[in-house]
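Consider the subject:
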Amino acid sequence: MDRQIDNDYINNKFVTSIIEGIHDWVRVIDKDNNVLYVNSSMTKELKRDTVGEKCYQSVGRKSPCANCISRMAVFDGKINQKEEVINGRIFSVVSSPVREDDGSISAVVEVLRDITETKNLNRKISEQNKILMNDIAMAKKLEFSLLPKGFVHDKLKFWYKYLPSEEIGGDFLSVFNIDESHVGIYIADVSGHGLPASILTVFINSGLSRRVLSPSLALEELYRRFNDAKFSSDLYITVFYAIIDTDNYTMTYTNSGHNVSPVIANDNRLEILLSPGIPICNWLNEPNYTDKTVNLLSGDRILLCTDGLIELKNNKNEQFGEKSLIDVLSRNNGTPEEIIEEIFIDARKFMNVNKIKDMADDITLAILKLK
């Protein structure tokens, strides 16, 4: 045996040993659908040597497959792929042409990989994803149902805009009548997004007392309920809560860590309601919230928002900022709806976009105007 023949022998034996060691099924089929070679993995699974049989007979069929990719590989000279069910199992079948030195195609190599478990797993994932999406849709419906609708008061006008960054968000706000002379309003920002944040927005809505006329006492009670619920330490809620006395035109408020301070503006007035306080969390035993009171005037415009709006960035990585909100609030003496619309017009101009989308955080903006 000369050196060339010896090398060919070694190479052929090496390639054969590789193919025989493959867990996937491998077989070679000629142009007349005859099986020329089958690796040991396929022979073992089929429990017989199928060399010499027609390719379709070896997998339990009586006639050629209607979508025979091996025949396609012979005619078009390309690698083709399909899925095939064999003995109740699902296989990914890849058919590749075998070319002679002159470029002609003499046979086809088929590699069959059992993907049954993968397909079953994908089906289960798809089913679970469908359930999750249904849960998210229900949570979104619940969350939006809790947002203010149709609030009417003879001394107040109110409007808001809410844009969640995901299907369901972590911002929340509410305005409500406590009694004939007191109106409560709060805005909240929950850590995170999605279902966990949505659960906390429901918790705020149900857990915040609407009977107590002290915002600090109401938030302290909410703080205790939060701790009693044993929420995770990485979850927290920032809330600005105010109660407006519509008889005396005063507003009493407290802040549990809400980082965008509300603003009161009038033709001759601009006041930022700074008030420190820790979020609703389980980091401390006692939050020690305090009330502050401010006098209100007819025509006052009160702005509340979350940080998603002021943190919008343009292509220069500049933030929209609180000053932009205050500028609009100071110059626009229109209805709350008109003020909010102008703010969003300015935000879109700032970002040079027609529509604000793909935000990093939820956006909530509310305006309350005293008549």
In short: DSSP finds nine helices and 15 strands in the chain. Residues 265 and 301 are 5 Å apart (CA to CA).
